[in-house]
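Long-time lurker, first post. I've been practising inverse folding by hand and with some scripts of my own, and I keep getting stuck on stretches where the structure tokens seem ambiguous. Below is the full token string for one chain I'm working on. Before anyone asks, I'm not after the true native sequence, just a reasonable design that respects the backbone. If someone could post their per-position residues I'd love to compare against what I wrote down in my notebook.
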């Protein structure tokens, strides 16, 4: 299964909410793009579903991992100028499903932040790469976020307790960007923000500290994406699938 061709991205976006499963997901997939959005004056917020408690590569005591990874994600956000970072409680790394409680929690965040654009992980599995993008938590968060965009957050009769108890009125998100999907066709040139992306990723010490050549690995990956999507030689690009949702 693949996505259809993307829509042309909106040009009048003011607020963006990024919803991802684990600390570091947003930075591997989209930090260069987000750094540009921040520079352009967009207000960007993060909602992270778990604290990445199943991550890491060394002997760090396991109970310290979620505390460490929350701090790493906050530092990574600060490196590219994102000021609002929220974590959900009650979801464990590796066990996330597109459940009704998760849809309700993401709906609450959408109604609170009132974003024009939502960026999340693709709900479609990539059969050519049984790794990163196809982690079940990523697929689950992509699916739950898509359900929260339509119909939950725009339907005032969905999760009525959100309006009744928290005053969170319905909100219609106009556009979704998916990261990590099977056939991304909207490249964003990140050559100018690559240094910021690298700084954000280096903040995830527990996840990348064991890698010998993080910069080389990233340059290779994002140069190939740029080349595949027709950017001039020597450019770096992140890539997305983009759809109108209103
Ligand atoms: Zn992840």
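-- Answer (accepted) --
I ran through it position by position. Result:
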């Amino acid at each position: 299964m693949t996505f259809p061709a993307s829509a042309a991205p909106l040009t009048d976006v003011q607020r963006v909410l990024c919803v991802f499963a684990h600390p570091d997901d947003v930075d591997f997939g989209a930090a260069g793009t987000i750094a540009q959005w921040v520079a352009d004056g967009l207000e960007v917020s993060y909602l992270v579903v778990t604290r990445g408690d199943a991550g890491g590569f060394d002997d760090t005591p396991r109970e310290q991992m979620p505390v460490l990874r929350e701090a790493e994600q906050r530092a990574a956000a600060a490196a590219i100028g994102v000021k609002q970072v929220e974590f959900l409680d009650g979801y464990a790394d590796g066990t996330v499903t597109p459940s009704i409680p998760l849809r309700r929690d993401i709906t609450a965040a959408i109604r609170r932040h009132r974003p024009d654009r939502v960026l999340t992980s693709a709900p479609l599995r990539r059969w050519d790469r049984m790794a990163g993008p196809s982690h079940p938590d990523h697929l689950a968060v992509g699916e739950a976020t898509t359900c929260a965009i339509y119909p939950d957050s725009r339907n005032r009769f969905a999760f009525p307790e959100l309006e009744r108890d928290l005053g969170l009125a319905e909100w219609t998100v106009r556009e979704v960007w998916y990261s990590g999907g099977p056939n991304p066709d909207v490249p964003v040139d990140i050559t100018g923000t690559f240094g910021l992306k690298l700084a954000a990723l280096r903040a995830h010490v527990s996840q990348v500290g064991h890698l010998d050549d993080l910069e080389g690995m990233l340059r290779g990956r994002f140069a190939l994406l740029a080349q595949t999507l027709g950017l001039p030689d020597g450019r770096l690009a992140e890539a997305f699938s983009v759809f109108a949702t209103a």
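A couple of notes from the structure itself: The beta strands are 15-20, 43-48, 84-87, 117-121, 175-179, 186-189, 237-244. Residues 227 and 233 are 7 Å apart (CA to CA). Happy to go over any region you disagree with.
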